[in-house]
Amino acid sequence: MRSQTKWVHTPESLLQGHIAYNVKFLGESEVDQPKGIEIVKDVIRKMKFNKHIKKAEGQKPPKVELTISVDGVTILDPKTKIILHQNPLHRISYCADDKSDKRMFTFIAKAADSNKHFCYVFDSEKCAKEITMTVGQAFDLAYRRFVETTGKDIDVRKQFLLLQKKVNTLQQENETLKKRIVDLENLKDKSDVDFYKSANNAGLQANSKKQTSNGDFLNDPSHRSNSPPKPLFVVNPLIADSGASSNSDPFGMGDFNPFSTLNTKSNQDIDMAINNADKELLDLQTGFSRGLCFGAEDFSLDDLDPLNQKS
């Protein structure tokens, strides 16, 4: 978007809320291209033909609420507020409004779960240009937000998941080592130890570099002693209050575990979450890099009416 564009609304109205328009929803149709005025005109012809058929049957185009914000364009039932369609802005590739009678508004958006594109057509009661400008402003703000925060937030989330996976792996290794220690404590003689080491591939490798300065110092007869080594300093243990629980913190701080929330997912779940984060980031990057195009031609209802008898 050009920075000199004069937008319709204040940025806060789209960043912190949404703009709503009451329009008639003529329908949506799958298209084979993400943009193009001819694509839009072809869809409008289909919608006009369907409108004539429904009118003959006594049906009218449903009235809907079209809400626009930095989070996307949403089509709601005006009474129940049930979401009929919802499209994030980075998936919207094309917008067009009728420059002649100011009523028709359309946009093309990519489906969330496939590479299909759909064109949505509305009768906007003389405010088609304003709706187009509002979508453009919302797209511009959403792109800026992605560059400044959203992309970084997704990367931080991915790094957190990688840390979570590493902690899970370390915890699993720790549990395995704890189990081995318990097993070793239950062994009775050397033959049991040798058998356990062999079964668990825990044999010790001989150190090929035995002639080290530390080794010479320890093997020096002048430094051998039968008395136990003396500690460098003595620390008196804290004496817990007899009335306090044995599990309570003597400082009253409670348990502290910075990774207490990191072990709630399995590594398989974490891998899936990392994959989803990568897909989300790629989807945003692809959508915003493609940009949003606007139609610049007239497509009046009379010209596109398939039942119009004009030559």
Automatic annotation (TrEMBL):
Q: Where in the cell is it found?
A: Cytoplasm
Is-annotated flag, keyword Cytoplasm? yes
Membrane-spanning parts: none
Chief location of this protein within or outside the cell: cytoplasm
Which SMART domains does the protein's record reference?
PTB
Coiled-coil positions: 160-190
Q: Which UniProt keyword terms apply here?
A: Coiled coil, Cytoplasm, Phagocytosis
Report domain PID positions. 19-148
In terms of InterPro entries, this protein maps to:
Adapter_Engulfment-Domain, PH-like_dom_sf, PTB/PI_dom
GO (cellular component) term, any one: cytoplasm
The biased composition feature labelled Polar residues covers: 204-216
Q: Which domain of life is it from?
A: Eukaryota
One GO term (biological process)? phagocytosis
Instruction: Specify whether Amino-acid biosynthesis is a keyword of the entry.
Output: no
Q: Where is this region: Disordered?
A: 204-232
**Sequence similarity:** Belongs to the ced-6 family.
Give the protein name, as stated in the record. Answer: PTB domain-containing engulfment adapter protein 1-like isoform X8
Q: Which organism is it from?
A: Octopus vulgaris (Common octopus)
Lineage of this protein's species? Answer: Eukaryota, Metazoa, Spiralia, Lophotrochozoa, Mollusca
